[in-house]
Amino acid sequence: MSLFEGSPNIEILKAQRNIKGLIEALEYNRHFHWSVLSPTSDQEKAKRYASVRAAAAAALGEIGDPVAVDPLVSALGDAQVVRVNAAVALGQIGDERAIGPLIRLDQAEKDYAVKELVRDVLLQMGPPAVVPLIKHILGHSEQAAGSKGTLVRLGTAAVDPLITEIVNNPDSAVREHAARVLAEIRDPRAIPALSKALQYPDHDVRSAAAAALSSLNYSPATEIERAIYAVARGDWDLSVKMGAAVIEPLLLALDSKDEYFRTEAARSLGQIGDPRAVGALIKGLAPFFHNLSSSKFRSVVVTALKQIDDEKAIVPLTEAAKSDKWIGGETVAVIRSMLSKHLATIDEDGLRVIAALEHIVQGHASWGEEVNGSLGGDSPVDCSDIRDIARRELARRATP
Q1: 39 lies in which domain range?
Q2: What's CA 347's distance to the chain center, in Å?
Q3: Which of 29-33, 207-211, 253-257 has the lowest mean pLDDT?
Q4: Count of domains observed in the chain
């Protein structure tokens, strides 16, 4: 049975610290049905009823008695004006039972201003809310970038939980966003975890970790750490100067989902000229890579293989010339330059592949080149001399 014959007087109830009455006022005509199609009078009633419930929520927050937590949690599902006041009231009471419901409200809320208010309330609740809030924001990658400011406001309290996410969370998006927050907080405690993240498989994680370390004025202690750091932050000139020490980090970058990093890693590997890179570069010519990479990347791979000048690349280059018209012409030129030097070391199966080389074309449309007075089109590539060299070598080996 209701305590009220008419509209509750929230000011009197608050002055009396009548918590039971205020809790009942939280339900005042909550289930009054109306819609945008309802008469104006019904809409005005709904607003008045909601304003009473909102005032009750605010009063309960000011009183601060934990007995109001559960009713206020229920009010988080009410009209916006009510749930905003209920969220603030829960923050004022500061009871840990409210953390989960407030996080669920943040997740469900569509109004960005309300979401910001809810997060401010969670921040106000202090250490007990830190880890759940971090896990919530980082666990929703579609929101994490726009929520970075919330986590940054946690300051040093967020550092250890963020480090835990970087080290232990298998989700690359979570690791990336954690690193980007640490870049803003700039606490040196994060350096060991961030330096380890430079070797994680995901490019975005490595890049974010490198940016965070840069904000901390990170100074690698060993040559291999310097090499890893140089590649992760895209310092290609330094990478090339470091030579053999940087091969493994460059091979990791070569497998990056970022086209620019793949391309520059391939270019750097070619300039260094270490044969350890040949196998990974050859994979970059495989047909399935055609849909993942531009012809520019594959062209750089061809050039890199030429610079390394390892005979193991000749047959894969031949296969690439046949299957990939966008690099057909330059690939034939590279095969031509390598073949005479390495002819004696190519096995007969490889020679047969080269001997069958024909009908090679160079495509132009993707580069916008002019062919026969117009853009686009394919032009034939003469590879008869290469074919003849391989055939003569096969004939020579067949002669007793």
Answers
A1: 1-125
A2: 44
A3: 29-33
A4: 1
